[in-house]
Design brief:
Shape: elongated
Largest sheet: 5 strands, antiparallel
Helix content: 40-55%
Number of helices: 15
Strand order of the largest sheet: 2-1-5-4-3
Radius of gyration: 47 Å
Length: 482
Amino acid sequence: ENRLAALIVNLQTGILLENENREVLLANQKFCSMFGLDSSPEKLIGTNSLSAIEDSNRLFKKETGFTKHLEELVKNKVALLGEELELKDGRVFERNYTPIYVDGVYKGHLWSYDDITLNKNYQKSLQAQKEKYSSIIANMNLGLVEVNKNDEIVYANQSFINISGYTLEDLKGKKAAQLLLSKESLEVFKEHNIRRKKGISDSYEVKVKTKKGETRYWLISGAPNYDMNGNLMGSIGIHLDITEQKKLQKQKNKLLENLATQNEQLNEYAHIVSHDLKSPLRNISALLSWTKEDFKEKLGTESLMTLNLMQDKVEKMDYLIDNILKYSSIDKGQSEAIPLDLNALVNKIKDMIYVPGHISVTIVKPLPTIMADETRIQQLFQNLMSNAVNYSDKAEGRVEVDYSENATHYIFSVKDNGIGIAPEHHEKIFKVFSSLGNHEKSTGIGLSIVKKVVDFYKGKIWLESEPGVGTTFYFSLLKNKA
């Protein structure tokens, strides 16, 4: 008894032991503190328990909460376990009543009280979380299925019911793979199911047939499901119906195929047309030259001027056809990226284009060596430099090529002191066949070629200009772009 008493005194459960006359035989400090008693456990011994704690009713939500069932329990001597008592301060006690018999003779009873507030709050929080996530799972747009280790359906949410066409009663206990999957998708499922049983999560596509007989495509993301002890108890699968996306993807692929075919046909057409056009143009040019040479004595000044004008127009048409071919082929074919010294390239262009004596073309500071396709970069610089020279209207014309760089791009500039471009034309000039001047070699394609090359190298092009003062074209090129 002494050993038992010492154990009870130190328990974290409130203990009250009474004899058959309701007199206290033993109480511990936990009991006193739980009920806010000023008396020590020793002072309670020998007293009537009800008189000692009669004010305790004021602590409970129901004023008779503490004494409820007491008299009836003691009278009937029936054990009671797990009775919950709610206190006004939010605490919850669990009360147990145990009658004690010695050799079949009733000798008293034992009351025990446990403060289960934390556990109750935890259970409420857990229940709230369970309800919250159960609601999310039930109403989310993704179909969820839980299966056991035999791949038999244990649970399916409403979204899965909607996309499959089956009711929960139809699904429970059935094997989803056999019920829904097509023959070719069964093999895919089996392969991924083996991975799932090894604890591997993954995603894959399958073709299914719904209850209505419709063929649909699903994206399944599956993961193994474990119990609290870490034992595999089945798996959980999330299902997304991607039928419409598959249809759109097929349409997209078909459109891309058609577009590629059309582009190829257009390129062939452009080359055929250019060949068919250039041949008669050359003939016309030759005939004009022969006519001027054979009849120069008989033709008057005005007639010669007319023939010269005709020959200029023919040459311009030839130049236009060449530019159209260049424009159409910028982003076609393979791009050979080689180390390209831009200083040498710019100097080469200076020798290729006609630069009058009163115009200077200079490189402000040494240009970098970049990895790019020589033909494309030459077209880019040549068009900008030619425009700068052609539209120079000053007694001393200047064209300056410069550059800077950042972490991802080279930024180049071609600056002139020519006629300038009004702000309202800054966007228009990059469109095909848009030309602001009447220069004899202007086709309206040069700046379109420039923009297309810049786009190919993932860059941007812009300009700063003041009419009558000059223009600076800026363009960026992505570094190391093939």
